[in-house]
Design brief:
Layout: H1 2-19, E1 23-24, E2 31-37, E3 43-57, H2 61-73, E4 79-92, E5 95-109
Length: 110
């Protein structure tokens, strides 16, 4: 059973490697594997993980995004990218009182 899962994963990996440079494995929804090639034409693999973070700011959506990355950087190394998935705002007395973002942060697992 485990051997079949591993063999299927290897087959899937080889198929995806030939089709594109970035792909997700079906049984790890939040992991991304990016093959890279060094000067000796060997394949180096980078395993990336994606987490979802909610953040808010009284200034702007950009400030809320910066706060999310800064907070995540306190406990994560090798942050590669941030993707703003959703933006919203809280309104109080007819004025925006808080900017909110839902971001996906991608970082490399060592």
């Amino acid at each position: 059973m485990v051997f079949n899962l591993v063999q299927n994963s290897i087959n899937y990996f080889n198929q995806m490697l030939s089709e594109c440079y970035q792909f997700k494995l079906p049984f790890f929804e939040n992991l991304i594997i990016i093959p890279t090639f060094n000067t000796l034409n060997f394949i180096n693999m980078a395993i990336l993980k994606v987490i979802e973070v909610l953040s808010s700011s009284e200034v702007s959506w950009e400030d809320a995004t910066r706060k999310a990355v800064a907070q995540a950087a306190k406990s994560l190394k090798n942050i590669r990218s941030v993707y703003v998935q959703d933006q919203s705002a809280a309104v109080k007395d007819g004025q925006i009182s808080e900017f909110r973002v839902n971001v996906k942060i991608t970082f490399e697992i060592e």
